[in-house]
Amino acid sequence: MFTKEKPIAVTYGIGVDVHDHEGRVITAEFDNFYMITCYTPNAQRELTRLDYRMTWEDDFLKYVKKLAEHKPVIYCGDLNVAHEEIDLKNPKSNRGNAGFTDEERDKMTRTLSSGFTDSYRKLYPEKTDAYSWWSYRMGARAKNIGWRIDYFIVSDSIADSIKEAAIYPEVMGSDHCPVGLEIGL
Q: Does the annotation mark 78 as catalytic?
């Protein structure tokens, strides 16, 4: 995490040992909010880590909700889920695959109904063909056959402060592209 402003504190993990050994979460506390970077576990092929993923989702939500009791939370990263059908090119053929299981999507719905907002969908609820990840296979990126799995999620209390939420597909260098958030706090 790079920041122009020095945080009050920086912590690693969510305080649950079974998760924290994978180095998935960095939290920086600032005067008016918490900023979290997160790399959510992938359910893997054959959904071999789906059960673990569900445990992670429950524990991570408890973590962010606890922080949100003190001040607003902004978290971003590869959340490894395309929440709605609009968030991937081929929803029918991908249903049940890692990142688009009913279980993963339900957990995202639960998070968003627990006091959090998907910044991109707040501003662009109907925008199609907006993806942040593409398979390296079969020229998927050139054809824009992708998934939106990288997010900025914010506490509902600051959702109206969102000025812009962006996806930068022109930025190369990975199978993901950067996403951005401009918020006035």
A: yes
Judge whether residue 98 has pLDDT over 90.
Answer: yes
Q: Residue 57: inside a domain, yes or no?
A: yes
CATH (domain of 97): 3.60.10.10
- Residue 13 located in a structural domain: yes
Spatial distance between the Cα atoms of 75 and 55, rounded to a whole number of angstroms: 19
Amino acid (1-letter code) at residue 64: V
Give the strand pairing for 150-155 and 162-167.
unpaired
Number of compact structural domains in the chain:
1
- Spot the catalytic one: 75, 78, 150, 151: 78
Q: What is the spatial distance between Cα 156 and Cα 24, in angstroms, rounded to a whole number?
A: 23
The model's pTM is: 0.96
Among 39, 52, 124, 156, the one annotated catalytic:
39
Tell me: pLDDT of 1 over 90: no
The DSSP element (H or E) to which 106 belongs, if any, is: helix 102-112
Give the C-alpha separation, 20 to 14, whole Å.
7
Active site residue 39: yes
| Chain segment 112-171, per-residue pLDDT in tens | 999 999 999 999 999 999 999 999 999 999 999 999 999 999 999 999 999 999 999 999
Residue 4, in any domain of the structure: no
Domain membership of residue 2 (yes or no) is no
